[in-house]
From TrEMBL:
This is Amine oxidase domain-containing protein. GO terms for molecular function: oxidoreductase activity. Pfam families: Amino_oxidase. Transmembrane segments: none annotated. It comes from Rotaria sordida.
Amino acid sequence: MHIIQFLTLYGVVCGHFQQHHPHVNHLQKRNAISNKSNPIATQVLIIGAGISGLEAARLLQKNGIKTLILEARNRTGGRIWSIHSKNGHILEMGASYIHGIYGSIPSGLLTNPIWDLTQEAKIRTHATKQKDFLGSYQIGDSISAIQSWFNEYMIFVREETRISSTNVSFGYYANLFAKQKNFTEEQQYAFTNYLHFFIGAVEGAELDAIGAKGYLDINSVHYGRNHIFSETGYMALTDYLAKDATDIRLKEVVVKIAYNEKSAEIETN
Ligand SMILES: Cc1cc2nc3c(=O)[nH]c(=O)nc-3n(C[C@H](O)[C@H](O)[C@H](O)COP(=O)(O)OP(=O)(O)OC[C@H]3O[C@@H](n4cnc5c(N)ncnc54)[C@H](O)[C@@H]3O)c2cc1C
């Protein structure tokens, strides 16, 4: 294993970023290995070139502070990763929605700052229609009927969890609710699909694995209106943030951080 100390500044940009930003190809990849007698220094070292690290670097650089980003993967973007299929579709492998546009986050009319960044970057986004969320799932009843079941169900779950001390799953309450409503098999199917989209898919877990009480305790701020990057993929935004952050090193996994009042030393593998 090589040990690298980052105490002198230089930039390396490669992988995804170089493919999409040929204008930075002129940056030379210099010998990345240094030793304690030849250290590499920077004012601020950022670990991770996800949206947080990239935006931090951008804001610091805007204020004249030198940054160096170390990223473990061979691309920027982190959990934002858009891939383009051969037949021209964009597949979002990570984030796809901006939740909360134009002050639509219900608690306090807030706007998601990602929306503001998207406007600044002049990236076109689109609203998603309710029916698009349901994709190929069959809906026997109209969307508005299912939405009103959903609203009723959430009130039901809130009330149940308020009087219960146990953290029972959304799936359990869904069955209970369906029985009370006397749903037909088809209605229950449509209702459960809706729950899968609005709770299961957002949380990345099956309804039976999400404790309703715990979820409602931490989810008091509900998402606002959504937009997606259907023309470019979400990575258009992280690429925008990355384009001026010239000191990004890919394939650098930070394995150790040691620091004192004067400095910090970072080791990568
Ligand atoms: C499937 C999925 C769907 C999602 N959908 C949405 C959505 O629709 N809307 C939404 O707003 N959010 C969504 N999210 C959440 C959103 O993607 C994340 O909140 C956001 O991307 C986090 O950004 P970040 O920069 O904080 O972290 P990350 O994107 O995780 O970036 C951290 C970076 O640090 C790097 N790193 C970690 N350890 C090291 C190390 N030791 N050395 C060097 N580098 C390291 C990682 O490789 C990574 O690139 C989704 C997430 C997933 C996974």
